[in-house]
Amino acid sequence: MKGLEDLSKIYEKVYVLRLGHRPERDKRITTHVALVSRAFGANGFVLEGICDDKVRDSLLKASKSWGGKIDYICNVDGKEYVKKWREEGGEVINLTMYGINVEDVIDKIIISPKKKLIIVGAEKVERFYYDNSDYNVAIGWQPHSEVAALAIFLDRLFKGRELFYNYRDAPYKIIPSERGKKVERK
């Protein structure tokens, strides 16, 4: 895709807020939510209530090898973070099985120039987040992975452009190949 712009410049800010991380139970899932956030165009990953060095280290390792930068913020009060985000003029998107189908709201979200906070829950999400979100968005109405929901939502938000973006500062670049693995070292 020629002339692909830096994804971080499309919107002022796209952050993902992970609620309810339980390190003993969610370590791989939360890490995957963080890595999908980074790979699919988000500028920041926020972990509610706790700091998890393994999640941070995975983000740093991915950026070191594949380029780019994602802000990592941890140990925040999720409710206060949402309130502040909205006070600063941002909009909040809660990914939930109980929301409006992504196809029915994505165009409205795309045209809004506001910074975006995408909420991804780990356990039961409190009513506060439904009531304080600008959009409660469903990626279908069947039980599924929050990792899948986030990937699909970000793909719709960036209209698939994130799939073609390579960071300029990446030490490694994958060379597409029908068979085998080809990696170029810059």
UniProtKB/TrEMBL annotation:
CDD domains: aTrm56-like
Catalysed reactions listed for this entry: cytidine(56) in tRNA + S-adenosyl-L-methionine = 2'-O-methylcytidine(56) in tRNA + S-adenosyl-L-homocysteine + H(+)
A Gene Ontology molecular function term of the record: tRNA (cytidine(56)-2'-O)-methyltransferase activity
Biological process per Gene Ontology, one example term: tRNA nucleoside ribose methylation
Binding site for S-adenosyl-L-methionine: 95, 121-125
E.C. numbers: 2.1.1.206
Cell location: Cytoplasm
Pfam assignment, any one: Trm56
Residues forming coiled coils: none
Domain of life: Archaea
Task performed by this protein: Specifically catalyzes the AdoMet-dependent 2'-O-ribose methylation of cytidine at position 56 in tRNAs.
Protein name per the record: tRNA (cytidine(56)-2'-O)-methyltransferase
